[in-house]
Design brief:
Chain lengths: 259, 65
C-alpha cells in the first residue's frame, strides 16, 4: 500500500466512498459496489414496519460484501434529531463513524452550519468519529475541527445535482488551510472528470451516490469513477504544471530553420 | 394506552418498550429505538416504561447516500 488514506485511525486503500441508495435493484447495487472498489459505503436508518423486516435483507447484503459502513443522519433538520439518529446508528451498525448531516434548506439540501457545529461537538464529546457534511466555508471548518472533527466533507454542489465543483476557489482555500485533515468532497459530483478534478485540487477522497446509481449502467459508471479517482490522485502526486497566460513552445527553438 | 409508533397512532397493550416491540412483531436485534426523540438503548428497553402520548420511533438499516 503506497498511498493509504486514514480516517480516524482506519487505513483505507480506495479513495472512493459510495452511497447505497437509488439503485435499480439489490443485484445492481452489489455489482456497482464491487466495480467501484469502494471500501466504505454510506447507509441510513429509516422507519421499520412491525413484522416487515425490510432492513434485514439490505443490511445482510452489505455485510456479505464485507464493506465498512458510514451511517448518515440524512434528512435530520435539528441538532436533537441528528444526535438521536447518530446514537441509533451507532448501536445498530456497531460503529462510531457517523456522516453528520443537519439540513438547513430543503431546496438545496444545504447544511445548517450552526446546527452542524453544535451536533458535531455533542457527538465528538460522546466518542463518535464525525464526518460532517458541510459547505466549503473556512470558518465553519475551523469550528468543526475545534469541535473534534478529524475529517471534513465539504459539498461540491447540492446533493444529487451532478453539477461538480461549484466553488473551486473556496475548495482550494479550504485545502490550503487544512493541510493535515483528510478532506472529502461529499455530494454534487455527476461525472468522473469532476472526481478527478477534486483529486487534482488535492482532495483526499470523494463520496458520491446519485452519479453511479442513476447512470444508465451503474456498474460501468462505478468503474469509470474508480479509474477517475485513481487518475486524479496520481496526477496530484505527480505535481501538475501551473497554467500560463501565454504560449511556450514545446519544440526546441534552437536550431529552427529559416532563421 | 394511546401512543404513536413511527408517526402512526395506535392503542398499545404493552407497558414497556420491549413489550411493545414484541407486540408489534419486531425482531429486537434488527431495530434501533427512540422515544420522544431520545435514544433508548436495546439493553434499556425492558426497563423503559411507556406512557400515554409517547412518540416511539423504530428504525432499521436502509440504503443511504
Amino acid at each position: 500500500m503506497t498511498d493509504p488514506l486514514n480516517f480516524y485511525g482506519v487505513t483505507l486503500t480506495s479513495r472512493l466512498l459510495v452511497g447505497t441508495s437509488q439503485y435499480p435493484s439489490p443485484a445492481i447495487l452489489a455489482e456497482a459496489l464491487e466495480a467501484s472498489k469502494a471500501e466504505v459505503v454510506t447507509v441510513s436508518l429509516r422507519r421499520e414496519a412491525g413484522g416487515s423486516r425490510a432492513g434485514e435483507s439490505f443490511w445482510g447484503l452489505i455485510r456479505d460484501l464485507g464493506l465498512r459502513v458510514l451511517p448518515n443522519t440524512a434528512g435530520c433538520r435539528s441538532v436533537k434529531e441528528a444526535v438521536t439518529t447518530a446514537h441509533m446508528a451507532r448501536e445498530l451498525f456497531d460503529t462510531t463513524w457517523i456522516k453528520l448531516e443537519v439540513i438547513g434548506d430543503d431546496d438545496l439540501l444545504a447544511p445548517d452550519p450552526f446546527g452542524l457545529v453544535e451536533a458535531a461537538r455533542i457527538l465528538c464529546d460522546d466518542g463518535f468519529d464525525v464526518f460532517p457534511y458541510m459547505t466549503e466555508d473556512v470558518t465553519l471548518a475551523d469550528r468543526l475541527v475545534d469541535a473534534g472533527c478529524r475529517v471534513l466533507m465539504p459539498w461540491g454542489a447540492p446533493i444529487g445535482s451532478g453539477r461538480g465543483l461549484n466553488n473551486i476557489f473556496g475548495l482550494r482555500a479550504l485545502r490550503a488551510r487544512f493541510r493535515d485533515i483528510p478532506l472529502v468532497i461529499d455530494a454534487g459530483l455527476g461525472a468522473p472528470s469532476q472526481a478527478a478534478q477534486a483529486f487534482e485540487l488535492g482532495y483526499d477522497a470523494v463520496l458520491l451516490n446519485t452519479a453511479i446509481a442513476r447512470a444508465g449502467d451503474p456498474a460501468a459508471m462505478a468503474r469509470a469513477f474508480a479509474l477517475a479517482c485513481e487518475a486524479g490522485r496520481a496526477a496530484y502526486k505527480a505535481l501538475p504544471i501551473e497554467p500560463r497566460d501565454m504560449a511556450e513552445p514545446s519544440t526546441p527553438v534552437l536550431g529552427r530553420a529559416f532563421t | 394506552m394511546k401512543i404513536a409508533v413511527n408517526g402512526e397512532a395506535l392503542e398499545a397493550q404493552a407497558g414497556t418498550l420491549a413489550g411493545l416491540l414484541s407486540e408489534l412483531g419486531y425482531e429486537p436485534a434488527l431495530v434501533a429505538t427512540a422515544i420522544n426523540e431520545t435514544f433508548v438503548r436495546a439493553k434499556d428497553r425492558d426497563a423503559c416504561a411507556l406512557k400515554e402520548g409517547d412518540r416511539v420511533e423504530v428504525l432499521s438499516p436502509r440504503q443511504g447516500g
